[in-house]
Design brief:
With 131 residues, the protein is mainly alpha-helical. 51% of the residues lie in helices and 0% in strands. It starts with a helix and ends in a 24-residue tail after the last helix. The C terminus is likely disordered.
């Protein structure tokens, strides 16, 4: 398990609007692409420099694909990086001020029942994955 790689994924995807949309619409495709092309690149370094050993564990990969921030927290992802990316992806689907952020926070507390977080335009419930 690599907290570094999880956080690097969250950081780099959140800073690119195109990647945010790809992650929202087809998370499996984006996670697979990112891991094969971006995981071993060195940030803020000239091209040609890369590591060779970084890869997600199957559990990390599935939590990212499921948009499951609770599992990502348990694996060591930074709450701020996860929250800012998930706000960019899902806040637009909610109608009340801070509706997504409140539900997101409640779901992160194991002592609180899971709220329904409004998902995509279809109105389907979105809780960010399963526990």
């Amino acid at each position: 398990m690599s907290k570094y790689l999880l956080n690097k994924f969250l950081f780099t995807v959140d800073r690119d609007p195109e990647l945010v949309e790809r992650y929202r619409e087809d998370p499996r495709e984006l996670v697979t692409w990112w891991e094969s092309t971006m995981a071993n690149s060195l940030l803020n370094c000239h091209s040609g420099e890369a590591s060779t050993w970084l890869a997600f564990t199957p559990e990390e990969r599935e939590a990212l694909i499921a948009h499951d921030h609770v599992r990502l927290f348990a694996m060591g992802s930074h709450p701020f990086l996860t929250l800012t990316l998930f706000i960019a992806m899902f806040e637009r689907d909610n109608t009340e001020p801070l509706e997504y952020q409140k539900a997101y926070g409640e779901r992160g507390d194991p002592g609180v029942a899971e709220p329904a977080v409004t998902g995509r335009k279809s109105g389907a419930a979105r809780s960010g994955g399963t526990r």
